Amino acid sequence: MTQRLHIHPTHPQERLVAQTVEVLKQSGGVIAYPTDSGYALGCSLGDKEALERIKKLRDLDKHHNFTLVCQNLSELGMYARVNNTVFRILKAHTPGPYTFILEATNEVPRRLQHPKKKTVGVRVPDNAIALAILSALGEPLMSVTLLFPGKNTMLADPDEIYECLKGKVDVMVDGGACGIEPTTVIDLATGMAEVVRVGKGPVF
Predict the structure, then answer these.
(1) What pLDDT score does 12 carry?
(2) For residue 198, how far is the Cα from the chain centroid?
(3) 49, 139, 174, 185: which could form a disulfide with 196 (CB 3.0–4.6 Å)?
(4) Mean pLDDT split into 10-residue runs, the chain, 204 residues
(5) Distance from C-alpha of 29 to C-alpha of 160, rounded to nearest angstrom
(6) By C-alpha distance, which of 163, 80, 73, 150 is closest to 120?
(7) Predicted local confidence at residue 94, as pLDDT
(8) pLDDT by residue (tens digit) across 92-121?
(9) With the C-alpha atoms ordered 68, 72, 77, 81, is the resulting torsion angle positive or negative?
(10) Cβ–Cβ under 8 Å, residues 9 and 176
């Protein structure tokens, strides 16, 4: 059974946000939720069962990198090593449709780190619903773009997304139509900004 919660895109209802977070705190809980670059799948940090559900839904292999979606730079700094140069870049481009690859701290479960580089993707979305969920949860979401197997483009229509996800996730947070572009991915792990993927965020 998939709950469909209609949450206001700019003034999220606390009651519905709390319902979403309760699902995330349950073992294996998976949600679909809107971000500033499109809909995504998310689960609690460290929830192995939920992680496997998402991998199966997206048909991902064990090497696929999840992103830690954080509510602010302070939280991001707990999970990724940030020097002064990197901090200035992050401050100028967050919140926004960017994923940054950085060296992971010991707070990041090993299975979420790049096996050789020990890096992790992190981001702060510019979306009121996503930020409200993150604030209420009190920790990052493990997250991936909602892109169905065999498809090259994301879905934007909540009705279509719900029909595709019925019975596959616990909650679909309906925040209305949003983008269909993935984030721009910038690798800052070496101290130099390297564009890994061009997406919604303008390349700097």
Answers:
(1) 98
(2) 17
(3) 185
(4) 96 98 96 96 94 92 85 96 93 96 91 83 97 97 90 89 95 93 92 90 88
(5) 21
(6) 80
(7) 96
(8) 999 999 999 999 999 988 878 777 888 999
(9) positive
(10) yes
Q: Which of 169, 189, 2, 172 is nearest to 103 (CA)?
A: 189
Q: CA–CA separation, 127 vs 67, rounded Å?
A: 16
Contact of 16 with 182, CB cutoff 8 Å: no
Count of CB atoms within 10 A of residue 149's CB? 9
Domains of the chain: 3-197 (3.90.870.10)
Distance CA 129, CA 137 (A): 12
pTM of the model: 0.94
Q: How far is CA 116 from the centre of its chain?
A: 22
Tokens of 59: 């048909």
